[in-house]
Write a structure and sequence with these properties.
With 305 residues, the protein is α/β, with parallel strands linked by helices. It is built from 13 helices and eight strands. The longest helix is centred in the middle third of the chain and has 29 residues.
């Protein structure tokens, strides 16, 4: 099948490679000419402008957008849509808000264009292992694009979740759960590290992946990270959030769902960005004022001897 791919970052480039290996023809475009040229060496067809990409695609055209959520997606759609014809399809494989995906589909449908929202999970490992795809689309459009989904995903690794919006909604909740899982592992391993025992954390991670109820791919990644850097001395504890965690908590509030673990994980990420929290300093100051509690020094390290 023929597909246009716009956005050749780590995800877009690897997805293109997987599609090429699966026998598809991929016309690639990126703001970086070097990114385009690198994939041409792998068999992709170059397009150094969106106009060139649209011209090289046969009708009905299918174009996958793998660009950051928000303005980059809007700008790409705005530049691409006038170059397409009724019956053509755009797929947003990034982490857009599902409400924005619904609005984009409604707008594009006025010109006869199809829109698919595809939540994509798998990270840099997806090239070899496949990508988990959560797809929102009309049934007919989904069926036409299914050869692409089947190539990108591992066996049973893609789902038509429902109409447009459903794919990014499911991916949003997926990422909210991911926040909570990461936080649980972080707290557990921090407690192990703070104990009086000299515990090999990488070996614990490896052990727990052998039949334990907490085994997971994330735990396999923890094992790899701890093997490379046992005390994580090369890592700064600044944790970004890409939006889906916030949207998940907002949806939980709107639906009255008590997503307490997910909310805690989100707010912990906010806290990770503060060198010295003003709120924590205020609490210490108030305790000093009403009870004479002097602010404590930093917690001493626990001896593991």
């Amino acid at each position: 099948m023929q597909l246009g791919m716009i956005g050749l970052g780590r995800m877009g480039a690897n997805m293109t490679l997987r599609l090429l290996r699966g026998g598809h023809e991929v016309i690639v475009h990126d703001r970086s000419a070097d990114a385009v040229s690198a994939l041409v060496k792998e068999g992709a067809v170059p397009a150094f402008t969106v106009e060139e990409l649209a011209a090289k695609l046969a009708a009905p055209r299918s174009v996958w957008l793998m660009v950051p959520a928000g303005a980059p997606v809007t700008d790409t759609i705005t530049s691409l849509a006038p170059l397409l014809s009724p019956g053509d399809t755009m797929i947003d494989g990034g982490n857009s808000n599902y409400r924005e995906s619904i609005a984009r589909a409604e707008q594009l449908s006025k010109d006869g264009l199809n829109f698919v929202d595809c939540g994509t999970s798998g990270g840099i490992w997806g090239l070899e292992n496949g990508y988990c795809l959560m797809i929102g689309a009309e049934e007919e459009v989904f069926r036409r694009m299914e050869p692409i989904f089947a190539t990108l995903a591992p066996p049973d690794g893609y789902l038509h979740a429902g109409p447009v919006g459903a794919g990014h909604f499911v991916k949003m909740v997926h990422n909210g759960i991911e926040y909570g899982m990461l936080q649980a592992y972080a707290e557990g391993f921090e407690l192990l590290d703070a104990s009086k025992y000299d515990i090999d954390l990488a070996r614990v991670a490896a052990l727990w992946n052998q039949g334990s109820v907490v085994r997971s791919w994330l735990l396999e990644l923890a094992e790899l990270a701890l093997e490379r850097d046992p005390d994580l001395s090369s890592i700064k504890g600044f944790v970004e959030d890409s939006g889906e965690g916030r949207w998940t908590v907002i949806e939980a509030i709107e639906h009255g769902v008590p997503a307490t673990a997910l909310a805690h994980a989100l707010f912990t990420r906010f806290r990770s960005r503060q060198e010295d929290s003003f709120g924590a300093k205020l609490i210490a100051a108030l305790r000093q004022e009403f009870g004479g509690h002097r602010p404590l020094p930093a917690r001493p390290e626990v001896s593991k001897e």
